[in-house]
Amino acid sequence: MATCEVCGNDYDKAFDVVRNGESHTFDSFECAIHAIAPTCEHCGCRIIGHGVESNGNIFCCAHCATEAGVTGVADRA
Ligand SMILES: [Zn+2]
Ligand SMILES: [Zn+2]
Question: CB count, 10 Å around CB of 41?
Fold first, then answer.
């Protein structure tokens, strides 16, 4: 049994995510996203795909990056 560090649920199928050498324990991807997914600099949504990174800022999609003044990016999907 492991305890989710977001919601405190004791769950036998909890899993660990290691980020920057730190281990985090979650019971669901929803909780993992809540805790460690980055947020889009433009619209503030959680980035659960690859996202678009530019000059140290991260965006959920090329549209948001463009709206924030980043040029030369395009969605590859
Ligand atoms: Zn949880
Ligand atoms: Zn966005």
Answer: 21
Ligand 1 centroid from CA 41, angstroms = 25
* Helix, strand, or coil (residue 10): strand
CA of 42 to the centre of ligand 1 (A): 27
- State pLDDT tens for residues 8-59: 999 999 999 999 899 999 999 999 999 999 999 999 999 999 999 998 999 9
Distance from C-alpha of 21 to C-alpha of 48, rounded to nearest angstrom: 20
- Residues less than 5 Å from ion ligand 1, measured at CB: 4, 6-7, 9, 27, 31
